[in-house]
Amino acid sequence: MPNGHGADGNVTVDGNGGANGNVTADHEALRVDRVMDGLRAFGANYTEFTRRFAAWLGLHSTDAAALVEILYAEDQGAPLSPARLSERVSLSSGATAILLKRLEQAGHIVRTRESTDRRVVTLRSSPDIRPRAIAFFGPYSERMAGAMAAYSPREIQRFEEFLGTLRTTMDALLADEYEGGGPTPPAP
Fold this sequence. Notes:
Elements: H1 22-57, H2 61-75, H3 82-89, H4 93-105, E1 109-112, E2 122-125, H5 129-148, H6 153-175
Antiparallel strand pairs: 1-2
Helix pairs in contact: 1-2, 2-4, 3-4
């Protein structure tokens, strides 16, 4: 039958061991939905970690998100400028300047001029915040490393490729269809 179910309601299987008809397509659509749900849940959990980091430090969640971005960029060997941070936390340049002033006054960041172009400002974490961030995110890092250790290097490579493809797709969507805030709404 076209939907892959026999007259008795059971899924029919072809000679290759695969389901016929829409059952395979439905199964794959459900799998994609589960992956997307898992990614959304992971994103929500990461946001919750950032919120708890903010509370732990006594910061507003936006300030903590900015601090996490600064720390992460340093860890990657590519410290942020205020303009790049503004993009990463989706704030205007004015709001970012105010946020940076708060973080600097709290002793969490320092602004440096490391470029030959002295107009370029580089954002760095202060020496006292890094040990606190390591203390907070240490259990997270350890558990994530343990969870990923269950997968082979080839599987991790495939995950990395998959996530890279998703990121490229999202970047393209944001630059194209969502550049002005979203697609054009349908006419009433």
